[in-house]
Design brief:
Elements (H helix, E strand, L loop, with lengths): L12 H24 L6 H14 L3 E2 L11 E5 L2 E3 L13 E10 L2 E10 L5 H19 L8 H14 L3 E2 L5 E3 L6 E5 L16 E4 L2 E3 L5 E3 L6 E3 L5 E3 L2 E6 L2 E4 L6 E2 L7
Antiparallel strand pairs: 1-4, 2-4, 3-12, 4-5, 6-10, 7-8, 7-9, 9-14, 10-13, 11-12, 14-15, 15-16
């Protein structure tokens, strides 16, 4: 996916504006799918909702056909961390489902994910999801010109570590995004601060922490896609695409126009 020495794509303000259009389609699709999550719904039905939403908003799917992937969303349930394939699985109360979606507008991509509880869910699982979501926002706050790339993963790790004894998945990372869905650089969800490339205005990144209630060890199922926690423990996954602007991080896949502005002082 990533080539050593590859440069990080810089976008113009107009190009970032198109990425915001793609990101808004992703946000609308995730909103529609999340609203449909309930016991008795199949993951295939959720995929159909996302397909209709993406098409009706004049976009195309980033996922469908990507290395042969057969759907427009990834649906990863419970111990499935990422890349689950929609199908006949029917959701039951107590599940936690990660829904990952990507859309393309005029050649530019947006990518985001949410974790959604199905009916009544164990408090420990809800806490895991909330901690993973909070760590995403901690990482997004570091997507600022002048920071180093590793400042993002360091913030994610600090946030998750402070929240509890969670397994931070290391084998899968966030990524650059723009004219392709997966671009340089990879963005780990851990690490020391002050390392890696200097972040610059015009970069766009997909930040996506993944955490489990067990160990961080994962494996890929025989379908070649679905990544599961080897411990069998529940996992959570949250993601946003963010642009680095002169004014601060601009979250391109939020429903509202979220611009984080100057970083709060300690």
């Amino acid at each position: 996916m990533f080539r050593r020495g590859e440069s990080i794509q810089i976008k113009s303000p107009d190009q970032l504006a198109v990425m915001r259009q793609a990101g808004l389609v992703v946000a609308l699709a995730l909103q529609a799918v999340s609203a449909a999550v309930r016991p008795g719904v199949s993951t295939r039905e959720l995929d159909a909702i996302a397909r209709e939403c993406i098409a009706s908003n004049g976009a195309t799917s980033s996922f469908l056909g990507y290395h042969g992937f057969p759907a427009v969303i990834c649906t990863s349930v419970n111990d499935e961390v990422v890349h689950g394939i929609p199908g006949d699985r029917v959701l039951v109360a107590g599940d936690l489902i990660s829904i990952d979606c990507g859309a393309i507008v005029d050649g530019w991509h947006g990518d985001a994910a949410v974790s959604v509880p199905v009916g009544a869910v164990a408090d420990s699982v809800l806490a895991l999801s909330a901690a993973t979501q909070a760590s995403l926002w901690a990482g997004l706050q570091q997507a600022r010109a002048g920071n180093r790339l590793s400042d993002i993963g360091h913030a994610v790790e600090l946030s998750l570590t402070a929240a509890g004894d969670y397994g931070i998945v290391e084998d899968y990372t966030g990524h650059g995004i723009g004219t392709s869905m997966h671009m340089h650089p990879p963005i780990p969800n851990y690490g020391k601060p002050g390392k890696g490339p200097v972040l610059k205005v015009g970069m766009a990144l997909a930040i996506e922490p993944m955490a489990t209630l067990g160990s961080a060890e994962v494996a890929v199922l025989s379908d070649g896609w679905t990544v599961v926690a080897m411990s069998g423990a529940p996992a959570a996954h949250w993601e946003h695409t963010v642009a680095i602007t002169e004014a601060g991080p601009w979250v391109l896949t939020a429903l509202d126009d979220v611009r984080l502005g100057p970083e709060a002082s300690e």
